[in-house]
Amino acid sequence: MRRGMKKEAVQSERDRIRPTSSCTIPDDPLLDALLSAEAIVRQLRSSVITRTVDARRQATAGDVTDSMNQQLTLMVEWAKHLREFQRLPLTAQVALLRHFSAQHLVMCAAFRSIHLNDVIYLTNETCLPREPPLGVPDVNRVAARIVDHLTTPMRKLQMNEIEYVALKAIALFDPREFTIFQLSTTPLAKLFGLASIDRLMQELLLPPDSSTIADKTQ
Asked: What is the rounded CA–CA span in Å between residue 147 and residue 139?
């Protein structure tokens, strides 16, 4: 202002660049496809998985194993509904899913728990507190890292579902540039061995009517 800037001009420029209340996000076919795939998987999870367990209780080691397998199965189902993924050769699909699987586990758990402070909710709606109970200390060390490095930042940024599905797609299709967790440096490497990834990758080879989602998540 002392150098000759007029207050009215500064305010006018602010008003010009400030988004107006009538501003809307233009339709984006890619985002629409991602949101549609997410909605399909969410419906599968809510109709099949959560009703099969005693929800809201503290997770056991068995619950963690079951949840990992369920989440990885849903990951395959999610990818199947992405047209860009369907266009890839099978070897590329399997390679992308293998690399993405660990990140998918932690991203989904983090976003599902975005409204909480010190607990992670798993796919089957059992929970992992950041303070480790007896019997599953490695599991809860991972839970603490998810809370600190993913859930808390997501909450502070007020991440919405559009941003979440876009983040998932980036992590799936650009594995060299996007890595949330290094398996070699976290207890997740040990835990990841509990889930049968190879078996779940075979879902891509099965005809659509050869089995049901309920069979795959039991």
From this structure: 13
Task: Read off the pTM.
Answer: 0.71
Instruction: Tell me if 20 is assigned to some domain.
Output: no
CATH classification of the domain holding 51: 1.10.565.10
Phi/psi for 202 (5° steps) reads -65, -15
Q: What angle do CA 212, 43, 52 make, to 5 degrees?
A: 65
Residue 15 placed within a domain: no
Three-state DSSP state, 119: strand
Q: Is residue 11, in this structure, part of any structural domain at all? A: no
Q: Across-strand partners of 127? A: 58, 121
Sole residue written with tokens 């993924």: 85
Domain encompassing residue 128: 27-217
Q: Is the dihedral of CA 139, 143, 146, 149 positive or negative?
A: negative
> DSSP of 190-218, one letter per residue?
HHHTTS-HHHHHGGGGS-TTSS-HHHHH-
Q: Tens of pLDDT along 62-87?
A: 888 888 888 888 898 899 999 999 99
- φ and ψ at 215, to 5 degrees? -65, -35
DSSP 8-state code for residue 118 = S
Q: What confidence tens digit (pLDDT) does each residue in 180-204 have?
A: 555 444 455 455 554 455 555 655 5
Neighbouring CB atoms inside 10 A of 66's CB total 23
Q: 91 near 128, Cβ under 8 Å?
A: no
Number of compact structural domains in the chain: 1
Does 203 fall in a domain? yes
Spatial distance between the Cα atoms of 39 and 78, rounded to a whole number of angstroms? 9
